[in-house]
Amino acid sequence: MSDAATITATPRAQGGTLARFWGWARNPWGKPRFLVVITWTYMVWALAPVLLAMAFSFNNGRSRSVWQGFSLQWWTSNAGSIKNDPQYLSALEQSLRLAAGDMLVSTPLGIALAIGLTRWRGYGQKPANFLMLFPLVTPELVMATSLFMVFTQITVEPFAAIHFGTTAQLVGQVTFSVSYVVVIVRSRLLSIGKEYEEAARDLGATPFGALRLALFPLLYPAMFAGAMIVFATSIDDFVVTQYMSGGSSSTTIPMLIYGNARGGTTTPALNAIATVMVVLTLVSVALAFIGYRFLGRGQSGGGTQGAMQDFGAFEL
Fold first, then answer.
1. pLDDT per position as a tens digit, 42-59
2. Which of 47, 92, 288, 296 has the most beta carbons within 10 angstroms of its beta carbon?
3. From CA 76, how far away is CA 107, in angstroms rounded?
């Protein structure tokens, strides 16, 4: 082949390769290649700083920016470690106390509200449903400021009996946590339907018996998931908890991190306590997902016939 023919054929080959590449990239029926790249890029961008901060909790020196070797001294052995520093232990204890209390109060209250809102038929149903979701869309700063004004300006009972500290922090967290339980449990209620309760009533169950023996076992996955989500939101809440605090005894992990993150005297122990908070949050969310998925496996609102088979053996 002559040199002229080679020069003439080369642009055609290059153009054909480029056309095939763009056809492959722009194929609407192919795999979402660029979407996967964008997703993983965002995940790396979001998680890399967190993982880096967690890694420095194992630093062998006092620096939180220069790696000096691996060590567990800021976890257990050092005098300023989270195991030996009363400030860190107090913050961890307060965070766990609030999270446990929030979970114990918000979960049953959210379950009751979800059932009531789902079964309610009549005037006021739609406004009540909107008001229940209102805490989810209200900026947390607005909610915290509002609660602060309520507890400081209103002097009638029961508001006057609520003092800043653990009690006020718990009330503030319950105020916005209930909505999470309502959303999760209500979605489960709508997927179940009324057939199981109706079947239980047909077999002679009282209204409470139908709830206890028919509906609640089907709601266990949503109850557990709601409780875990409440725990996760409580353990890392800052704004409401900060506004409702009443001194050093009510300092939580997020408050401690906020107050010391930019200090020049902080040590990797602060990274360690932040790692504890991140791990607790991730474990709670993972348990919520696993519990909702696997506890609910094989459960469905399969109609009256399935309900009759399930509850036929009970004396209700």
1. 999 999 999 999 999 999
2. 288
3. 35
Q: From the centroid of its chain, how far is CA 170?
A: 17
- The C-alpha atoms of residue 106 and residue 226 are separated, in whole angstroms, by 9
Of the CA atoms within 13 Å of residue 144, those in its CB half-sphere come to: 13
Residues of the chain with pLDDT under 50: 1-14, 301-316
C-alpha span between 11 and 98 (Å, rounded): 70
Q: What is the pTM of this model?
A: 0.79
148-259-46-221 Cα dihedral, nearest 10 degrees: -50
Per the structure block, which two tokens stand in for 36?
């996967």
Domains of the chain: 3-73 (no CATH), 82-311 (1.10.3720.10)
Question: Would you state the structure tokens that stand for residue 146, as one six-digit string?
Answer: 């509002």
Residue-wise pLDDT for 254-308, tens only, equals 999 998 887 767 889 999 999 999 999 999 999 999 988 887 665 554 433 433 3
Q: Quick one: 260 exposed, middle or buried, by C-beta within 10 A (0-12, 13-18, 19+)? A: middle
In sequence order, what DSSP letters do the residues of 208-260 get, joined into one string? HHHIIIIIHHHHHHHHHHHHHHHHHHHHT--HHHHHT--SGGG--HHHHHHHH
